[in-house]
Amino acid sequence: MVSLEMCQDAAKRGNLGIAFMAGIHYMQTEKDLGKAFPYFSVAAEHGHAQSQYLLGNCYFEGSFMEKNVGMAMYWWEKAAAQGHKEAEKKLMLNTD
Q1: What is the average pLDDT score of the chain?
Q2: Least crowded by CB within 10 Å, which of 24, 28, 58, 75?
Q3: Local confidence band at 90 (pLDDT 50, 70, 90 cut-offs)
Q4: How far is CA 49 from CA 30, 69, 88, 96, in A?
Q5: CA dist 14 → 19, 46, 77 (Å)
Q6: Which residue did the predictor score with more confidence, 62 or 11?
Q7: Residue 88 confidence (pLDDT) above 80
Q8: Domain 4-93 - what CATH class?
Q9: Backbone angles phi, psi at 12, to 5 degrees
């Protein structure tokens, strides 16, 4: 498995897929969102829409951390701004 530092370096060079795929590995194979979260964060902070969407879900559900609707909305808005349809739906469902 690649280290978080390697993913951060790759993301700085524009390769967001490595961090995203590492996050997917931890989420799906190991069923560990706590390990997946930092990898999704790296990709999301560099503009990866699917990672932004997944971070929003993590914050909204409070899966392994305290629920934070404000942060969920923030990440869903970032993803929606890039045309992410599921993020757009989440925003519509969770906006007053």
Answers
A1: 88
A2: 28
A3: very high
A4: 23, 18, 11, 23
A5: 11, 8, 21
A6: 62
A7: yes
A8: mainly alpha
A9: -60, -30
Distance CA 81, CA 42 (A): 18
Position 3 pLDDT exceeds 80:
no
Q: In Å, what is the CA distance from 89 to each residue of 5, 25, 73, 92?
A: 33, 25, 11, 5
Tell me how far apart the alpha carbons of residues 74 and 50 are, in angstroms, rounded to a whole number.
Answer: 14
Max Cα-Cα span within the chain: 42
| Alpha-carbon distance values, 50 to 35, 62, 82, 96 (Å) | 17, 18, 10, 24
The residue written with tokens 């909305």 in the block is 73
Contacts of residue 65, Cβ cutoff 8 Å, sequence gap at least 6: 37, 58, 59
User: Is 79 a residue whose pLDDT tops 80?
Assistant: yes
Higher pLDDT, 26 or 86: 86
